[in-house]
Amino acid sequence: MELVEEIAAVRAGRGNPRTLVGEFRRTPLLVPLVDGGLMTGVFGGVRWVYGFTDEAALARFARTRDVPPGREWEYVSLLGARLTDSVIPSMDGPGGVAVNVADEDGSMLFPPARGIVPDAVAVDAGHTGEGEESR
């Protein structure tokens, strides 16, 4: 199954969270770039990297940000595994990945928890942080 289908299955209560994480790790995500870095936001003391499964999901997010129609956003494509294994550990404080955040019934958060991010940066390792959205 693709990541979008796995998210739907888990949200419906019939999916397997381990399968979901595996599919997330194998999936290339589109991550918007802002001011030379990855677009993130902070919620609940966690810095979330925004990732999208396709350009349509990214465009829906752009519309929620009042981006004028036709304006292009620069983005990079990164595997979920690269985000959790390399990007998240390099962040200041706890970080996770927010997938398809503009899709009310299709979004999913991959928090800084063991089994998702390296144990050294998992929330149960005692990391905390606050901040504001960067874009």
List keywords for this structure.
135 residues; alpha+beta; four-stranded mixed β-sheet; disordered C terminus; SseB protein N-terminal domain-containing protein
Roughly how many Å apart are the termini? 32 Å
The rough form would be described as: globular
* Low-confidence runs of at least 5 consecutive residues: 127-135
**What is the helical fraction, as a range of percent?**
25-40%
Count of individual domains: 1
Instruction: Tell me the Rg in angstroms.
Output: 14 Å
User: Strand share of the residues?
Assistant: 15-25%
Helix segment tally: 4
Give helix and strand order, one letter per element, not per position: HHEEEEHEHEE
Mean pLDDT metric: 90
Number of beta-strand segments: 7
Describe the main β-sheet briefly. Answer: 4 strands, mixed
Briefly note the structural class of the backbone: alpha+beta
Order of adjacent strands in the largest pleated sheet: 3-4-6-7
Protein name: SseB protein N-terminal domain-containing protein
Describe the structure.
This protein is an alpha+beta fold. The chain contains four helices and seven strands, in the order H-H-E-E-E-E-H-E-H-E-E. It has one domain. The strands form two sheets. A four-stranded mixed beta sheet has the order 3-4-6-7, covered by helices on one side. A three-stranded antiparallel beta sheet has the order 2-1-5.
